[in-house]
Amino acid sequence: MYAMNTLQNAGELYAHTAGYDDEMTEYINTLRNGILEAYSGIFQGFKNSSKTQLLIPYASNILQFLDSIYMEKDMDDVVMKTAIGVLGDLADTLGSNAGSLIQQSLSSKEFLNECLTSEDHLIKESAEWARLAISRAISV
Predict the structure, then answer these.
(1) What's the mean pLDDT when you consider all of the chain?
(2) Is the pLDDT of residue 79 over 70?
(3) How many CA atoms lie within 13 A of 31 on its CB side?
(4) Measured in whole angstroms, how far is the alpha carbon of residue 23 from the centre of its chain?
(5) For residue 32, what pLDDT band results from cuts at 50, 70 and 90?
(6) CB 76: neighbour CB atoms within 10 A?
(7) What is the pLDDT of residue 117?
(8) Cα–Cα distances in Å, from 133 out to 15, 16, 35?
């Protein structure tokens, strides 16, 4: 609970980069990636456990963070790969509990499609896995 609240607060601070120079944007992207990696680790740690329901209240905030950084259009390839991975982890870990939230997300579909057509092999590979996880979460 404490880690998720801390990550949520950090995400709110570093979701937007408007008005910053390139160096500060690069620094913020590093922080975003750290936040996303922490979310991914938490989801992977909780996957297939009896406690996944503890993560459900945080799902909409995580999706809002993903929407925010996607709409900023300034994330680097590392953040993009980690972010699409978190979207897949969310779907994979929470299943149908995340499916409807992902469908309601402002940009998840656009973000997924952009990653699927990426020139970066690692982003595309992560996006293909995320697409499968999301499809399973929505069809349940």
Answers:
(1) 92
(2) yes
(3) 19
(4) 23
(5) very high
(6) 13
(7) 97
(8) 25, 27, 21
Beta carbons of 135 and 89 less than 8 angstroms apart: no
The angle that helices 56-72 and 2-13 make with each other, rounded to 10 degrees, is 20
Cα–Cα distance, 111 to 108 (Å, whole number): 5
Residue indicated by tokens 């990696």: 37
pLDDT band at 2 (very low <50, low <70, confident <90, very high): confident
pLDDT over 70 (residue 140)? no
Name 14's Cβ contacts closer than 8 Å, sequence gap at least 6: 28, 31, 32, 35
Shortest CA distance to 52 belongs to which of 60, 42, 64, 37? 42
CA–CA dist 125, 130 (Å, integer): 9
Helix 2-13 × helix 22-46 angle, to 10°: 160
Whether residue 16 has pLDDT greater than 80: no
